[in-house]
Amino acid sequence: MSSVVCIGSLNVDLVVRVTRLPGTGETVTGHALERHLGGKGLNQALSAARAGGDVALVGAAGTDEGGAWMRTELGGEGVDLRGVADVEGPSGTALIEVDAEGANRIVVIPGANGWLTADYTSAQVARLGSARVALAPLEVPPASVLGALRAARAAGMRTILNTAPVPPDGLPEGILDVTDIVIANEHEASLITARSVDGVESAYAAAHALRDLGAHSAIVTLGAEGAVWSTPDGDGHTPAYPVTPIDTVAAGDAFCGVLAASLARDLPWDTALRRASAAGALATTVAGAAPSLPSAAAIDRLVAAHPPEDT
After folding, report:
1. Which sequence positions are flagged as catalytic?
2. Closest alpha carbon to 105 in 275, 271, 282, 248
């Protein structure tokens, strides 16, 4: 029986390592090409599973070699794939450039992910109705995310929306009304709230604005400055953990997946946020998306090494 349901994309990540990212019209020489599991839905499901969650994934994969490879790898990680549809054609693909400082630039080709509909995701979430938490990013058709979260709310699950990436037309109408926790980074929070977000103080204002738009609680992640949050019980700041980053790919997915898994275990809010922050930090210390998602043991070691007053 799954405790966490993740709804979202499955991608084959093709990662190119470069000394620096090219400018418009410029060609640079890469020094490595890697293939990894990817897609925000997949990453967040894998993050939650490695953090100790019993996880089911709802999404779609193509009938190509990439789809078969993703299924084999995820099955080996213990993720329930019965909600992943087989769609004729190619799987989603992400082309990722990463420079020597760990900054990245990403182009996503949806492939099978574009097939998802509200009817499909809502039916799959309803089938998994005994789960505790539903988590969804926005890298699939927005209507399919809205349908999934509505079904999750109807089933009594705690719903988490990760606003990455914000759709060109903005968030689907009414989606925050069925969201218990919305998680946005600085850029996403700024787009959604039409507020400038630059640092902790402005992030508090953005978190309040996200709640005013309908979400029960809001988290704004700030990278090296940690995360700011606002709930009906008050506001707070969870500092970042000290690490030396080499690659920021999937750090946000690590945060979201571990938060979902921690809340599904009924861990206290502060504890869940510290574990999520530790996971996000650890993800920046390993190259790639799926390879960087940490284990529960690694997360707990980092949290124990930095008590709250030290983080």
Report:
1. 253
2. 248
311, pLDDT greater than 60: no
Q: What is the pTM of this model?
A: 0.94
Asked whether residue 52 is assigned to any structural domain, the reply reads yes
In a domain, 95, yes or no: no
Any domain includes 239: yes
Q: What is the end-to-end Cα distance of the chain in Å, rounded? A: 35
- pLDDT 10s digits, 211-230: 999 999 999 999 999 999 99
CA distance 28 to 17: 10
Q: Tell me, what CATH number does 252's domain have? A: 3.40.1190.20
Q: How far apart are CA 14 and CA 17, in angstroms?
A: 10
In a domain, 17, yes or no: no
pLDDT in tens, 254-286: 999 999 999 999 999 999 999 999 999 999 999
Domain with 166, as residue range(s), is 4-8+40-89+113-305
In angstroms, rounded to a whole number, what is the distance separating the alpha carbons of residues 5 and 8? 10
How sure is the predictor about 308, in pLDDT bands with cuts at 50, 70 and 90?
confident
Structural domain total, the chain: 1
Q: Are 184 and 218 in contact (CB under 8 A)?
A: yes
